[in-house]
Design goal:
Layout: E1 7-13, E2 16-24, E3 65-70, E4 73-77, H1 79-84, E5 92-94, E6 97-100, E7 109-117, H2 120-136, E8 138-146, E9 149-158, E10 161-167, H3 188-200, H4 213-228, H5 250-262
Parallel strand pairs: 1-5
Antiparallel strand pairs: 1-2, 2-7, 3-4, 6-8, 7-10, 8-9, 9-10
Helix pairs in contact: 3-5
């Protein structure tokens, strides 16, 4: 099935422009989704905006955005007023600057998208921009209106295409809640055993490592219900692990792990 293009516009660097399109690089299409039903009638339950005081439904034309400035006191903003403070063009990815590749910490990355040339006319311009970024080992920074908000985006060359990442806003990224003592002493023997364990547990990456077992179980349960139309047997509860009251010794745990993995006793 072809991926659905959800944005079309232009990639621009100075005077070089290419017609491009965006498609999401990830999907939640396989995720099990449920509707909320009325248990008695089996009809779907609708969600509506209602007035918090009168409890009457509010029509779309009567809904307006308000910024709170006090208790039950709001500054009213019309959609047209909000749109005026946005980008002049919502259909152009204008690269403003470049930063060294890898200089932006992973925590700023939000959602990935595939950026591709939309026609043969813009193909050469697209490829020139991509190869120039590769040659200088940099990524581009631009702004774009996506998901109803203006966002900073990062453009990273990848293979024959470009991946566009939306970046989190500055006030969305928190600092670590605790500081880690980087001067703490590490037992040399403990580190040696840990290195061995890490090495033995190292495997080649594959998508199977991040499969969702809950989704699999839900789909299986739904299939069984469809076949039998009977209530599924209640899931067995896992017996709680009894605490011994002792603090786990990391060295002993590592030795046991290595013994179980390699079938040999660590020296």
């Amino acid at each position: 099935m072809a991926r659905q293009t959800f944005w079309k516009g232009y990639l621009k660097l100075s005077l070089v422009t290419a017609s491009v399109s965006l498609t999401p690089a990830t999907t939640e299409g396989n995720k099990v989704r449920f509707h909320v039903l009325n248990r008695e009638t089996k009809n779907r339950v609708e969600s509506r905006y209602v007035d918090s005081v009168t409890h009457k439904p509010v029509a779309d034309r009567d809904q307006v955005k308000g910024y709170p400035r006090g208790e039950d006191d709001y500054i009213i903003l019309e959609d047209e007023e909000i749109e005026e403070v946005g980008l002049e063009s919502t259909r152009t990815i204008d690269i403003e600057s470049f930063v060294p590749r890898g200089s932006i910490d992973w925590i700023w990355y939000d959602k990935p998208h595939f950026l591709a040339p939309e026609d043969k006319v813009g193909l050469e311009a697209f490829c020139v921009i991509r190869e120039a970024m590769k040659a200088n080992d940099v990524v581009g920074i631009a702004r774009l209106v996506l998901y109803r908000r203006e966002r900073a985006v990062l453009l990273e060359p990848q293979g024959k295409g470009i991946v566009l990442w939306t970046l989190r806003y500055g006030d969305e990224v928190r600092k670590p809640s605790t500081e880690i003592d980087d001067k703490a002493d590490i037992d040399g023997k403990l580190l040696t055993l840990m290195k061995r364990l890490v090495k033995e547990e190292t495997k080649d990456w594959g998508p199977t490592m991040v499969q969702d077992p809950i989704q699999k179980q839900l789909k299986s349960m739904i299939r069984n219900k469809q076949k039998s139309l009977k209530k599924a047997a209640p899931a067995k509860k896992t017996a709680p692990v009894k605490s011994t009251g002792n603090v786990i010794n990391i060295m002993d745990a590592l030795k046991k792990s290595l013994t179980a993995e390699g079938g040999r006793k660590p020296r």
